From TrEMBL:
Belongs to the major facilitator superfamily. Sugar transporter (TC 2.A.1.1) family. The lineage of its organism: Eukaryota, Fungi, Dikarya, Ascomycota, Pezizomycotina. It holds the Pfam family Sugar_tr. Residues 1-453 form the Major facilitator superfamily (MFS) profile domain. This is Major facilitator superfamily (MFS) profile domain-containing protein. It is a multi-pass membrane protein. InterPro entries: MFS_dom, MFS_sugar_transport-like, MFS_Sugar_Transporters, MFS_trans_sf, Sugar/inositol_transpt, Sugar_transporter_CS. Its main location: membrane. The chain crosses the membrane at residues 63-81, 93-110, 116-138, 150-169, 181-204, 344-360, 380-403, 415-432. Keywords: Membrane, Transmembrane, Transmembrane helix, Transport. It comes from the Eukaryota. It is found in: Membrane.
């Protein structure tokens, strides 16, 4: 296969042949604002895995995040508001909920009940944002680069996860463990992004698809023209707007005004939509059962299994793990998902991830039996964790979010995305709760073999 016929070159040529000005600052800014909705999820995930290592936090609470407990509810309920008040106001509302929850956690001091309330409130908003963010990006992105732009939501999550870990690392290095400020700072700092994203959201346009679904067709055309950076009379704009509005009008003519009953009936009663339900659920089951989130949530402890000691070293290594995922997710968004396709990206990621788990399972099995290992074998175990992060970012980390946002017809996109994320958060809650038991009951090494299978 020559270079000119490679999928990457074809993809790049197709982008260059797109209508002039379609990839403009307005589009990039709008996508950026919606990608910020992923920051709360990433920051919570990163800081939660690291903050339990702080002596000041252990003295006051010594519990992990309860965000996952209410996340399933928040995700499922979000579809109602997404379709009623629009994408922008939904975004603002969920960001406000996250900020309130973080402030409650910050001011909880020694009250375990207050910390619980703060995390439970945050969970409602964080999960709802994982529905609204990818869905909104899918609705405003050009079709050719829809996968690329949607994956920048995941990139924002990973960036925030890395920053959250290093904030905890900085607090551990520079603040006294006798001060509450050591654990309060990571909780408080994460409120900055919700406030920033809320402010920036007043400078973006509403989703043209949502406006068309509400019968505001002229506003939808105006919004699309603004996002595409061109006049309303451009031929390519009319072609795209027709491809958006016509299916919506046909769906409305067939199913009528959207109600909860009609939405559920269309989702589960139509064979093609039922296949979408099955696909997204299977994707999220595979993502959780692959053990990647288990590694993320208990990474400092797992690093201890393979020879990394000391609080600083564990937190710092966790930050590098998030950085590894971030770098590969950027590569996946630019070169894999749209260029070679969703399916190939998924299989590449799963296959290499499986081999990493096999090695990680064999290493503690050998060390646990009392046998000595070489320094190279120990370094390889650490490398396997980072390689695992890289390939997970290519496949099972990124693609389920994309599937959950882009597979659905316009009329049930919000409900389909909410249903997908609801299952995702329920599976995440289950595997997070089960991971300590899996690690202990399977003598550590068996857990990695279980994840590989």
């Amino acid at each position: 296969m020559g270079l000119s016929t490679s999928p990457f070159v074809k993809y790049w040529k197709a982008i260059k042949e797109s209508p002039p000005g379609i990839y403009n600052r307005k589009l990039m800014f709008t996508v950026f604002v919606y990608t910020l909705s992923g920051s709360s999820r990433g920051w919570d995930e990163g800081s939660t895995s690291a903050i339990t290592q702080l002596k000041s936090f252990q003295k006051q609470f010594n519990v992990v995040s309860l965000v996952n407990l209410t996340a399933g509810v928040g995700a499922l309920l979000s579809f109602y508001l997404n379709d009623r008040i629009g994408r922008r106001w939904s975004l603002r509302l969920y960001l406000a909920i996250v900020a309130v929850g973080s402030l409650i956690s910050t001011l909880s001091y020694g009250s375990i009940a207050a910390l619980y309330v703060g995390h439970l409130v945050s969970g409602l908003g964080i999960a709802a944002l994982t529905v609204t963010g990818p869905m909104s990006i899918v609705e405003i992105s050009p079709r050719l680069t829809r996968g690329l732009m949607t994956l920048w939501f995941n990139i924002t999550m990973l960036s925030s996860q890395m920053i959250g870990i290093f904030v905890v690392y900085g607090c551990n290095r520079n603040m006294s463990p006798t001060l509450n400020l050591q654990w309060q700072t990571p909780f408080f700092v994460q409120t900055f992004i919700p406030f920033t994203a809320t402010f920036l959201s007043f400078f973006v346009d509403e989703s043209p698809r949502w406006l068309c679904m509400k019968g505001r067709v002229e506003e939808g055309l105006e919004a699309l023209a603004n996002i595409r950076g061109c006049a309303r009379d451009k031929p390519h704009l009319f072609v795209e707007f027709y491809s958006i509005n016509e299916p919506i009008q046909l769906e409305l003519a067939e199913y009528g005004k959207d109600t909860l009953v009609s939405t559920i009936r269309e989702t589960f009663g139509k064979r093609s939509n039922l296949r979408h339900v099955q696909l997204t659920i299977v994707a999220y089951i595979l993502a959780q059962m692959s053990g990647a989130n288990s590694i993320t949530n208990y990474l400092p402890q797992i690093f201890g299994y393979i020879g990394v000691t000391g609080t600083d070293a564990k937190i710092y290594s966790s930050g590098l793990y998030a950085l590894a995922k971030l770098r590969c997710c950027v590569v996946a968004s630019l070169f894999f998902v749209d260029a070679i396709g969703r399916r190939k990206s998924l299989f590449i990621g799963i296959t290499i991830q499986m081999f990493c788990h096999v090695y990680l399972g064999s290493f503690p099995n050998v060390t646990g039996s009392g046998k000595s290992v070489t320094l190279g074998a120990s370094d390889m175990a650490i490398a396997a964790i980072y390689i695992h992060a890289l390939v997970w970012a290519v496949g099972l980390y990124s693609l389920p979010y994309l599937f959950g946002a882009e597979l659905w017809p316009n009329r049930i996109r919000s409900f389909g995305g909410a249903l997908s994320q609801c299952f995702h958060w329920l599976f995440l809650f289950a595997i997070t709760k089960a991971t300590p038991s899996i690690l202990s009951s399977m003598n550590k090494w068996g857990a990695f073999v279980f994840f590989a299978v």
